[in-house]
Write a structure and sequence with these properties.
Layout: H1 18-35, E1 39-40, E2 46-48, H2 49-56, H3 61-66, E3 69-71, E4 77-80, H4 85-94, E5 103-112, E6 124-133, H5 138-154, E7 160-166, H6 173-184, H7 193-198, H8 212-219, H9 230-245, E8 251-252, E9 264-272, E10 280-286, H10 290-293, E11 301-307, H11 308-319, E12 329-333, H12 336-352, E13 357-359, H13 366-376, E14 380-384, H14 386-391, E15 393-398, E16 403-408, H15 412-423
Parallel strand pairs: 1-5, 7-8, 12-13, 12-14
Antiparallel strand pairs: 2-4, 3-4, 5-6, 6-11, 7-9, 9-10, 10-11, 14-15, 15-16
Helix pairs in contact: 1-5, 2-4, 5-9, 12-15
The structure holds adenosine-5'-triphosphate (ATP) and magnesium ion.
């Protein structure tokens, strides 16, 4: 026997009934983005590797070790999209969108990162994110945060917290960097290998170390708050005031630095207390220098990315994986003539109503048909056998309430109308 081929490690198939949860979330995302005035962008699954090296940063986990990079047949280095911000900015520049004024853009789709797979961490995962370009003020930071927060609120998820921080800009970050270097250097031998490697290139990254040996030194590290320049300090105060105006609860976490190099000033994370080690649902911030570093104008921007898989894990944990409510009508025909009667009725239901209509075409006993109706999660069964044909009355059975009623077998349109009437049409 041929050996079975399975999905690649770290990837997941999305299959029913779980795919309905995704559809529901995606529908909510599109509706929410629309309410905030954000328009969708879709970019290619792969891009020139250079885009991510420049746009994400050489000292990041993504570029250092997580990219799926390959050489195409023309000898060009290509990389499967590991994050969306650089591609979205690339597309906005390529289509001269930024010259037309501030842009509000969002995306939903897969990212690829070569990671060690575990719960909440995959090699192909999916993100929803937004990018708002053209505003220097902290109102825009608060706007993107509130957009993400609304999604959480729409699901009524509890145990979720927003933490914010400022990581300054090009004028004050060098001083903080220096202070961190001075703090960590004397203890360098006691730090984790990862920290030792990072310390000269990107000492800020030590603050988000998860290594036990680093924590003691991180705890006593200086805080950026004490090094922010006047403008960055004002921006942070304005962000806080705007979050208060929008009644979004937050706390300040001076350890948030975010993995990517391009952030300036505002950084934030939303995490959940039900996720364990992979607790961050959403991360983002302001990146006033990215657009220029990708060859565009000197233009500020702010955004976030939310992990769809992790978000749905939290949703499931908070509302349980209760069976979906029953929906739709199973058309049950007993005999060839009954099938010929029901087929056009099913056709009419599918054409003219929102009611899901199921039909099985095999010759079976009523009980077997009802089992299939259960498997389909149908709320009603419309049953036609020889008796019903003779009397000109179908049986409409409520599979939840276990009650029967009779429905005259008139034209398909009349029957469909009667079914909408009988079921409330809201199945
Ligand atoms: P982490 O510290 O967990 O690796 P990150 O800083 O790499 O996160 P971002 O690049 O900010 O994550 O991506 C935003 C969100 O996308 C994350 O908070 C998470 O919800 C999700 N995400 C990122 N990488 C993965 C992955 N490999 N598998 C599943 N979800 C992911
Ligand atoms: Mg990561």
């Amino acid at each position: 026997m041929a050996s079975k081929i399975t999905a690649p490690r770290g990837t997941q198939d999305l299959i029913p009934p779980h795919s309905a949860r995704w559809q529901e979330l995606e529908a909510k995302i599109h509706a929410l983005a629309r309410r905030f005035g954000y328009a969708e962008v879709r970019t290619p699954l792969f891009e020139a590797t250079e885009l991510f090296v420049r746009g994400v940063g050489e000292t990041t986990d993504i570029v250092e070790k997580e990219m799926y990079t390959f050489t195409d047949k023309g000898g060009r280095s290509m990389t499967l999209r590991p994050e969306w911000t650089a591609p979205v900015v690339r597309a906005a520049l390529e289509h001269q969108m930024l010259a037309r004024g501030p842009q509000r853009l969002y995306y939903v789709g897969p990212i690829f990162r070569y990671e060690r797979p575990q719960k909440g961490r995959y090699r192909q995962s999916h993100q929803f994110g937004v990018e708002c370009t053209g505003y220097r003020g902290a109102e825009a930071d608060a706007e993107v945060i509130s957009l993400g927060w609304e999604l959480i609120r729409a699901y009524g998820i509890e145990g979720v917290s927003l933490r914010i921080n400022s990581i300054g800009d090009a004028s004050c970050r060098p001083r903080y960097r220096q202070a961190l270097l001075e703090h960590f250097r004397p203890n360098i031998a006691q730090l984790s290998e990862e920290a030792q490697r990072r310390i000269e290139r990107n000492p800020l990254r030590l603050l988000d170390s998860k290594e036990e040996r680093d924590l003691r030194f991180v705890a006593s590290a200086p805080h950026f708050e004490d090094f922010l320049c006047e403008e960055c300090r004002e921006h942070f105060a304005s962000l806080r005031a705007n979050l208060d105006l929008l009644e979004i609860p937050y706390s300040i976490d001076w350890r948030i630095v975010r993995g990517l190099d391009y952030y300036t000033r505002t950084v934030f994370e939303v995490s959940s207390n039900v996720l364990g080690a992979q607790s961050t649902l959403c991360g983002g911030g302001r990146y006033d220098d990215l657009i220029a570093s990708l060859g565009g104008p000197n233009m500020p921007a702010v955004g976030f990315a939310l992990g769809i898989e992790r978000f749905l894990m939290v949703v499931e944990a908070s509302r349980g994986s209760a069976a979906a409510p029953r929906a739709g009508i199973q058309a049950i025909a007993l005999g060839a003539q009954a099938r010929a009667t029901l087929l056009p009725i099913v056709g009419e239901l599918r054409r003219a109503t929102e009611i899901p209509a199921f039909m099985d075409y095999e010759e079976r006993k009523l009980l077997a048909h009802l089992k299939i109706a259960d498997r389909n999660g149908a709320r009603f069964a419309l049953i036609v056998g020889s008796e019903e044909l003779a009397s000109g009355q179908a049986v409409l059975r409520d599979l939840e309430g276990r009650t029967d009623r009779r429905l005259p077998l008139l034209s398909p349109k009349d029957v469909a109308d009667a079914l909408v009437e009988a079921t409330g049409g809201s199945l």
